[in-house]
Design brief:
The chain is mainly β. The protein has one domain. The protein is 0% helix and 46% strand. The protein contains no helices and six strands. It has a four-stranded antiparallel sheet, with no helix packed on it. It is globular, with a radius of gyration of 12 Å.
Length: 84
């Protein structure tokens, strides 16, 4: 159905759940900020995540240090930003 569910470490907002968490998220949790956006693929890093939508847009969130999110942000992103 194209919905994205995440779980695990979320210290930099890498799960896209809208907030950071000191504790591990133990169960699959729907990424609400992507509601209505078909997620075709997702790539998950230790502190960041990237998704490709059905329309080919690239979205990224989590730790932005060293430009790793691909859109110039150096700080953590708790929701998502579209890369150009």
């Amino acid at each position: 159905d194209g919905e994205l569910y995440m779980w695990g470490k979320n210290s930099n907002g890498q799960l896209g759940l809208g907030k950071k968490a000191a504790k591990v998220i133990p169960i699959p949790t729907k990424v609400e900020c992507l509601s209505g956006i078909f997620t075709k693929q997702a790539a998950l890093g230790f502190e960041q995540s990237v998704a490709v939508t059905g329309g080919g847009k690239v979205l990224s969130w989590g730790a932005g240090g060293s430009g790793r999110l691909g859109h110039g942000q150096e700080s953590s992103i708790l929701g998502f930003l579209r890369s150009t």
